[in-house]
Amino acid sequence: MSDRFVSEVKLFNFTEIADGRGKLISLESNINIPFDVKRVYYLYSTKKEAARGFHAHIELKQMAICISGSCIIDVETVKGKTSFTMNCPNKGLFMDGIVWREIRNFSDDCVLLVLADAIYTEDDYIRDYDSFSLRLKSLT
Ligand code: TYD
Question: What pLDDT, in 10s, does the model give residues 52-97?
Fold first, then answer.
């Protein structure tokens, strides 16, 4: 069991480098991404009616960036529930530790890029909502 009791989300605004040709955003470990990036994955071609997530992590730090289209990320932390509309490549949703997340309303062109501070392991998942709620109560 983890002894790093964290349950936080924070919206980041990344600096855009714009010129006459368009825009560019650079993401760098421990500079504008608050961790060492060990894994990158992306969700795309998500069916309109589909929703993803429905889990929390124990230790994982993640930054979710909607680099195309839009989606909604509902989160629950020790502070309560919040929804974020992700529709801009310069916004990143940082999720640290025990955060329940559900992702919905994917547009057809949605590409949700996720940076993570650890390689994939099922051991870090809490997939049962009741177990998540119990864990959160132990934080308060
Ligand atoms: P899952 O985390 O359940 O997706 P979501 O939370 O977006 O609904 O992952 C779906 C499948 O993909 C599951 O079998 C685990 C696998 N997977 C990997 O192999 N590596 C990864 O980095 C991730 C995120 C998932």
Answer: 999 999 999 999 999 999 999 999 999 999 999 999 999 999 999 9
Give the span between the Cα atoms of 65 and 136, in whole angstroms: 25
Residue 134 three-state SS = helix
How many whole angstroms from 114 Cα to the centroid of ligand 1? 11
pTM: 0.96
Provide the CA 31 distance to its chain's centre, in angstroms: 18
Please identify, by atom number, the ligand 1 atom nearest to the C-alpha of residue 41: 22
Task: Match 């119990």 to its residue by tokens.
Answer: 134
Instruction: For each of the domains in the chain, give its residue range(s) and CATH number, in order of start.
Output: 7-137 (2.60.120.10)
